[in-house]
Amino acid sequence: MLTCREITELVTDYLEGNLGLADRLRFQLHLGMCRHCRAYLRQLRATIAAMKKLSQPAPDEAMPTDVQAELLKRFRNWKS
Amino acid sequence: MADLPTAPDGPVSAPASSAAERALVARLLAGDEAAFVELVGRHHAPLRRLARVFVSSDASAEELVQETWVAVLDGLRGFEARASLKTWIFRILVNRAKTRREREARTTPLSALAPDAGAGDDDSGPAVDPARFDERGRWTAPPQHGSPEQALLDGETRARLAEAVAALPERQRALVVLRDIDGLTAEEACNVLGLSESNQRVLLHRARSRLRAELEQWMKR
User: Fold this and answer.
1) Which CATH number fits domain A1-56: 1.10.10, 2.60.40, 1.10.3470, 1.20.1070?
2) A68 touching B, CB under 8 A?
3) In this predicted model, what pLDDT tens digit does every residue of B121-164 receive, in sequence order?
4) What is the pTM of this model?
């Protein structure tokens, strides 16, 4: 039987699909019985989901137009 | 200052290119400007995020990305079309960051580099404070059962998360930026950062555990 502490160390491998069948079942068995570890997993998933949202660029992250123009000029030189 | 990851020189299990990428490369080599604009538009923001991990200002990050694009143009004709264009571009950035750092190290007094050499790159240690478990490994201070999913959507928490990412040790930060923010696969991230698969697993685990802990602290307040 896995302990809660072990669950917190295996959780990334679980989410990444790196656990073998036996370990995955032991992991899920523990989760089924432990609401604290379910909460832990939920928080970790929420964290990962929130990370994904950080990819939405802020307005100041767009490439400056002069830089874009310069790059395009270089591309034209490159192809000729 | 922690060591930058060493990007491998050869195609170490390089991720394969997708059909869409191969089509894009063909258009680029044919001199299609729209293809180049598309490529830059797609990767510029992720490259900047990765660059920001390795340099200390937004301006230097922008510069590093521009250098990268110039290097991409220089190398494009020799690009091996079976490899992934995306990881090739990202690796160019990592290599240039490394070169830049070596150059800066030569012109920086040694005393400025010595104190934090390797500091903070804490890749071992428990995911959760051991004091929160009893001697049999059961929670004594369990995570709260609120609804973090809702709380995580607000802008303040978002800013807090970005701060927590910025505070991670360099290799962990580079990895979560690639994996969790910009959606690269484990294989792609290993290739870009020159990490072994097992190293990638450990670093990702450490980084995600730490970010969760930071947000838990934040939400308790």
Assistant:
1) 1.10.10
2) yes
3) 566 789 999 999 999 999 999 998 765 556 666 778 888 999 99
4) 0.86
